[in-house]
């Protein structure tokens, strides 16, 4: 983006770090260094940054190559501000993105329903005193293990996923059982009013067990596993009926 060779880019990065520091930005302070292979083949400490930090750096580069990224960031920011005023726009955006990726309308509707069920559950957890992301993750893992036989990380590994969203790579049947686990857990929690993560964990396991029992019965009828190793990448172009049913 700076239209310079290695040495030029190195010098520019040094100048840019100084300028950002003078502006009071914490970005440079928050950047870390990791040992990475250099041109001479040796492992040397190299500045690294997260996606958010890199996008912030792009905003500080006065280059024609950076301009498209800046325009895109401005557009995304404008869209998010509009969605704050009108939350329905968030749903419309999600539907458009899923369509572009090739998901069927039935799958999209199921996926959007799963988002609502998940929100209902996290709202109930908040009411019960479970409000930290780590505690959410613990309870979610318990539920996933109970109904599918796999933790979230095991499930993602089974589907050969890395940073991708697990639910975006589930079949309709997997999504339906996930929703059954969550809506049952929400209903039990509202009825029993647990306090804190320990009591909520027991409720989460019981709610997910309902979906686990349903999975076993479905597998008995179908004669095959419900939890599928397939992910969205395996079927280019679109998710066909065969994938959605398996």
Please give a structural write-up:
The protein is mainly α and 246 residues long. It has 2 domains: 6-73, no CATH class; 87-245, no CATH class. It has 11 helices and 2 strands; from the N terminus they run ααββααααααααα. Strands 1-2 form a two-stranded antiparallel sheet. Residues 235-246 have low confidence and may be disordered.
Number of domains: 2
In one word, what is the shape? elongated
Mean pLDDT across all amino acids: 88
Helix content percent band: 55-70%
End-to-end separation = 45 Å
Number of H/I helices: 11
Query: Taking strands numbered 1, 2, ... along the chain, how are they ordered across the largest sheet?
Result: 1-2
Short description:
The chain contains eleven helices and two strands.
What keyword list fits this structure?
two-stranded antiparallel ribbon, elongated, 246 residues, 2 strands, 2 domains, mainly alpha, 11 helices
